[in-house]
Amino acid sequence: MEKFVITKRVNNEYQFNLKAGNGEIILTSEGYVQKASCLKGIESVKINAQEDARYDRRVAKNEKDYFVLKARNGEIIGKSQYYSSNSSMEAGILSVKKNAPTAEIVDETL
After folding, report:
1. Which residues does the UniProt record annotate as the domain DUF1508 (predicted)?
2. Which residue of 15, 34, 93, 110 has the fewest C-beta atoms within 10 A of its own C-beta?
3. Any idea where the domains of the chain sit in the sequence?
4. For domain 3-107, which architecture applies?
5. Cβ distance 18 to 47 under 8 Å?
6. What is the pLDDT of residues 6-48, one digit of tens each?
């Protein structure tokens, strides 16, 4: 089952990972000082995931494809892993579109 998993980084910031049903991480957030902000980030992913225009497709310095998901205000909500091909990246975007809206939230910081 797809889920958003909230964890704490070593610097005590909160972050979330969107995981597909197979457990693979398909989107990682920035760090948040407050858990409430992290939860707002998850809600923003759920809202923006369906709009293709919110995905910024990029190529890293190592020439791997990846994407970022942006909110309406242009702020980056989450970043994907690096992919070996453009088609793999597009499959990752489809996975976020499919999984994000109904994903449960699992808080591992409790």
Report:
1. 11-56, 60-107
2. 110
3. 3-107
4. Roll (2.30)
5. no
6. 999 999 999 999 999 999 999 999 999 999 999 999 999 999 9
Alpha helices per DSSP H over 1-110: 35-48, 86-99
Q: What is the CA radius of gyration of the chain?
A: 13
What is the SS3 assignment for 36-52? HHHHHHHHHHHHHCCCH
Spatial distance between the Cα atoms of 104 and 83, rounded to a whole number of angstroms = 25
Strand pairing class (76-79; 104-107): unpaired
The predicted-structure confidence for 69-88, as pLDDT tens digits, reads as follows 999 999 999 999 999 999 99
Tokens 């972050």 -> residue = 15
- CB of 70 closer than 8 Å to CB of 54: yes
